């Protein structure tokens, strides 16, 4: 029940609605003649109920309605209603245009059965059994029920191609900023800052982007210690091609291949885009895990380009926001607050290369390699790979790289062994020519396996083996050897395993990751990590958790060993905890308190000591606070170590998006990625999405919208201010192509709620059932008997019109001061020409 509405008015209006429900049931399409004698109205002769005389009746005309398919919203559309003669009776029906029919996602055979009226501008669905359309002005909606047999494939999170939107034109600037200041025992001050992000603009289906990254380091009291740099890591453009489930890219890019390694190049590529497939058919997305000894900055990069950068709290971390399009080796750097660093690499898992029966997957690219300074360097090349789903069990795949002095070819097959998992094997042959030097020819063999054991709640996500001959050279290694003097390759063997196991009865989960890379010309690199998580109850203490994490990294001759154990216990509104860790012979222990606040902010404080490693016992303390804001996400951290250092850091991520519909700052998401702009027609403070609010111009942006997924944007009616209410559907559903800026407008009313009596110049009242509309044609209320109306969203000095008989008949002007309790008497003067 709306606040402050008089109870007597509720009873009167409720009686009217009950009357309409009884005599105007939606199940009947017959016109109804009302018996006005039963209405409790003083002036029964002055009543206009024409709009209710037929269930779902619409006067012929065009209305802006939210199209809803099987109770899922599609979009707001201008829908025409036309009068037709059916079986000798006049009815008013919705008239959908070809463009609106495309939004339904009908199968090809269903589309062929549609007949077109009014010169091909109005669809007739009478040949399709089971399709029902019903308009509802009270919800500003057109409800359409369509049997699943007539629809293309869709599920709870995926919409057919016909429903995908390219979004609106606009510009964007996304950023991720990390800063830190530390004071050492020697009195010097270390300052550091780094920034990365993406900027660009959208025009139609094209996305123009420029990725950037920069850093700054300075130590006070030390000459020539200031170092700074800034670089545009790549400039490129791309667009989706939904008709062939592909993506076209032009400019600076990185080879992404399931068969070959990655290298930088400038050119053009056409790739079948797996992210356009339904979620169940998509592949693996890489994950990076590790253990931070202190509050630390984690940077994930590939080929020198920063892919992900963020500050994490002390303890284990898992980065799961990486794109499934990434392949090859990822470089990870963990910068601790005490100045130390962990560095290791992650080889993204290649699940067995399988393709659905009859389906083709391909990747094509051509251009010239480039160096870190955007200069093309090396021969022109062409590369391509193809996978063909031969049957339910078998897939064949292969690929090639062609250039003047480097050539490579790969062939392989994948096998679905049903209960025994999936397996693929391939071999790659490469030839590299070096002027004046020995040419190199070699082969590389690879075996990949994946299996989920549902009966024991286990999953061998990936197990792989690769062996390369000594003279086998990848394209990236060839470019380093010939043009850059930076050759560090000559891989020999690579083993990778990723496995998980859930012990449901014990409330225990385990995860193991192992990577072992050997070389012909240098020491091996190893990366091991294992995690165990156990949940249990202890007497009256409920939901306790203990976690054990251990990792070893041997990278470029340096070894890092870390183990971490923690115990957490819910206590009141927060969580108390204890953790202990060992890293390279030094032990550390902390007691902690953490809490998630009502606005979803999170903080944690730690205090403890460290000992061992020949450094004596030292006390320490740290704090971590994260805020997910409307305009940016902010994380702050504080670290203190006795007789060593004190440091303070801030991380800020966010962006700015501007379109013809408005502009807004917003929190962080995928850099340069898909987003949705919401407009409430200038009404500020409207809660949108999870935690956002519209700005002073009535604009909000929801970042991080998944590509090609069914996305739901909504106004949180439970958090609406007292003077704001939703005037239409508060929910919108859509699916956006990669990098799109979606746009949705929600109808909201901002203003006071008043009780008013409308009176015409001749002393009579507007008829019972007349409607009151504002300048935007939004209905603010309905006239009851004696001219009484409950109005919502009214503002001082606003001009309102009263409609009956199908048109505006008179108008009123609201006073400058709106009374809080008493009724208003509003003279209704005739509308010119009304």
TrEMBL record:
Positions in coiled-coil regions: none
Localization per Swiss-Prot or TrEMBL: Cell outer membrane
Domain PapC-like C-terminal: 759-812
Cited SUPFAM superfamilies: FimD N-terminal domain-like (SSF141729)
Biological processes per GO annotation: pilus assembly
GO cellular component: cell outer membrane
Entries under InterPro entries matching the protein: Fimb_usher, FimD_plug_dom, PapC-like_C, PapC-like_C_sf, PapC_N, PapC_N_sf
Annotated PapC N-terminal domain residues: 33-178
Membrane topology type: Multi-pass membrane protein
A molecular-function term among this protein's GO annotations: fimbrial usher porin activity
Pfam family, one: PapC_N
Keywords noted in UniProt: Cell outer membrane, Membrane, Signal, Transmembrane, Transmembrane beta strand, Transport
Cleavable signal peptide: none
Family: Belongs to the fimbrial export usher family.
Protein name: Outer membrane usher protein FimD/PapC
Gene source species: Enterobacillus tribolii
